[in-house]
Amino acid sequence: MILTTKIKIDIISDVVCPWCLVGYKRLEQAMQELGVEEKFELVWNPFELNPTMSLEGENAVDYLAKKYNMSVEKVKSFQATITKNGAELGFIFNYFDGMKTVNTRNAHILLDFAKEFGKQTELKMRLFTAHFTEQKDISNRHVLGQLIQSIGLDTDTFLAKLDDDSARQKVQDTEDYWHRQGVTAVPTMVFNNEAIMNGAYPIATYKQVLTDLLGK
What we know:
Distance between the termini: 29 Å
CATH superfamily: Glutaredoxin
CATH architecture: 3-Layer(aba) Sandwich
Radius of gyration: 17 Å
Number of strands: 6
Number of domains: 1
Helix content: 40-55%
Low-confidence stretches: none
Mean pLDDT: 96
Order of helices and strands: EHEEHHEHHHHHEEH
Structural class: alpha+beta
C-alpha cells in the first residue's frame, strides 16, 4: 500500500452548479499562488441539485425561475454575474437560449469511477466545460463517451458503469452520507475531515485556510 501524507479536501458538488466551478477555480488559484498543489488530495463527491430531473431535461432559465421563485430577468442577471466571475478566473460561461438543466446521475457515476484512475478532477473539469462552455448535453451517453475518450480513458468500460446497479447505488449512498453530515447546498468543501466551508469564497480566504492546514 502506498501511504500518502497529502491533506484531503472533499468537494461536494454538482456538475451543473456554476458556483461549484467558481469555488473550485478560486481554490485552485489559491493553491497555485502558494505553490502547494502537491500537498493536497482532492476528492469530488456527488450532490444532485435536481435528482428528479427527467432524462429530457428542462429549459434552464424557466426551471431555475420556478425552483427558486425568481423572475426570468433575475435568473439572467444571476447568469451575468456568474459569467463575470468565471471570466476573472479564466473560465467561459456560455449561457444560451434553450440551455437545459439536465439529470446528472450518470455524470456522477463516471466521476466516481474516474477516481480509480486518478482522473477525477480532469473529468470534472471536462464536464463543467462541456455543460457551461461547449453547450453540450452532459446527460447524453454519446457526449459522456466523448468526454471520457478525451481524457484518455476507455469509453466502453466507463459507459458500462452506467448500467451497473451497484455503481448507481454507490452514488446514492455517498449522497445520503453527505446529507446526513448536514450538507444541504453546494459547493461544500471539507478540509482534512474537519473544517467545513459552504459556498464559493475569495481566493484570499482559501489561501488562509490552506496555510493554516499546513501549519505555516
